Amino acid sequence: MYGDSKEQKISKKKKNFPVNEQLGDYLLNNAREIDLPIEYFELTQYDTGIPVLDRKGKDTLWLTAIYNPNNTHRIHEGLKAMYSILRTEGYSPVHKHLHIERIDYCTFGNSNPFRIKIVNNLNDNYDYFYVKKADASRIYGLELEHILSPARINYFVDDTTLLEEHIAGVPGDQFIKTYIDNDEFNKVRIAKELVKFNERCFVRLLGDMRSYNYVFDITPDFEEVQFRIRAIDFDQQSYEGRKNLYLPQFFKENYPLVKLVQQYLTLENVEQYQKEERTLIARRSKSAHHRLNALLDVMEQDTVSLPEKVNQLREELAEHYKDDVFLKCNSMGAIVRRSISIL
In a 3-state reduction of DSSP, which class is residue 113? Predict the structure, then answer.
């Protein structure tokens, strides 16, 4: 049955992999590397932190960072400039009416991000963006998402600092808890999107897609509501050794969605949607083949996992696809290249 498997367990703490010279050159050639006015390390120098609570008073494991008044103005101006880089290629005059309302620090996870809330003084409209530690795994994940998924990702790198846009949507765990039983939502469409998202993750080997690592983009259509699942966490790009860790269907947090697939889709439906998604990924890879090949050339020579995980994954994928070429892959980048080439 779709989704039937033992509970999947992710490595408790993934190693941070630095950006090497070759990846740096790739980022520079593709306009992803830029001088940023604030470094990640500077944001870690806050004086104190206040726990961020949700609407029910529960600790979210985020802290609102409070800085020394002597540094606050400089940090805020630097962050406004970074937002201008994200939105208008650094043309800051159009953002002179913005202010930084809050800087939140995440105390869990691998990237320990800072989430910046920026507000428009003229109409109180707000937006978010993130400043994180630059990690090669995450950057490869962002690039593969940009090239192979239906979405585009806006981010920039400066040495050890990663600037990343906010991906809007309903967090998967909240969607499952609050929206999945909405009678106005077509359950078939939700189930279909899980199958397609599952396929996108598996082909490009993006792991750890538990419900709080993706969002639902909900779009009203002229007849019904459309759904798209978008990954928001790319730390586990091609790191784990177990094949099933790259299939969202096998995480217990996603079981309510898997249940919809089992209830509303036939095996023929599932195979149809898998084929459709693989065809779309193949088309995207062909239309961006120069950029994709340049990325995979760098990734293939890079180290973004442990040798024992590389060995395990290539063996499991060789068995899954009945393809011994995987056994010749000596890096995660080579495994990703082979996975995509099968399309």
Answer: coil
Query: Any residues with CB less than 8 A from the CB of 213 and at least 6 apart, and which?
Result: 172, 231, 232, 233
81-138 pLDDT tens trace: 999 999 988 767 778 889 999 999 998 777 789 999 999 999 999 999 999 999 999 9
Region of 22 (left: φ > 0; alpha: ψ -120 to 50; beta: rest) is: alpha
pLDDT (tens digit, 9 = 90+) per residue, 313-323? 999 999 999 99
What dihedral angle (degrees, nearest 10) is formed by the CA atoms of 277, 282, 283, 289? Answer: 150
Tokens of 213: 């690592």
Tell me: pLDDT of 172 over 70: yes
Question: Which architecture, in CATH terms, is 170-341?
Answer: Orthogonal Bundle (1.10)
Q: With 80 as the cut, is the pLDDT of residue 2 above it? A: no
pLDDT attached to residue 84 = 93
The C-alpha atoms of residue 191 and residue 264 are separated, in whole angstroms, by 7
Structural domain boundaries in the chain: 21-165, 170-341
Q: Given the DSSP bridges, would you call strands 98-106 and 59-66 parallel, antiparallel or unpaired?
A: antiparallel
CB-based contacts of 291, cutoff 8 Å, min separation 6: 30, 147
Measure CA of the first residue to CA of the last residue in the chain; give whole Å. 24
Distance, in Å, from the CA atom of 153 to the CA atom of 142, rounded to the nearest integer, reads 7
pLDDT score, position 4: 59
**Does the pLDDT value for residue 1 go beyond 70?**
no
Cα 30 vs. chain centroid, distance in angstroms?
Answer: 19
How far lies 99's CA from each of 36, 123, 128, 168, in Å?
18, 12, 12, 20
| Helices (H), ranges, the chain | 21-29, 40-43, 69-88, 136-148, 172-174, 187-204, 255-264, 267-287, 289-301, 307-321, 332-341
What is the Cα–Cα distance from 28 to 303, expressed in whole angstroms?
Answer: 20
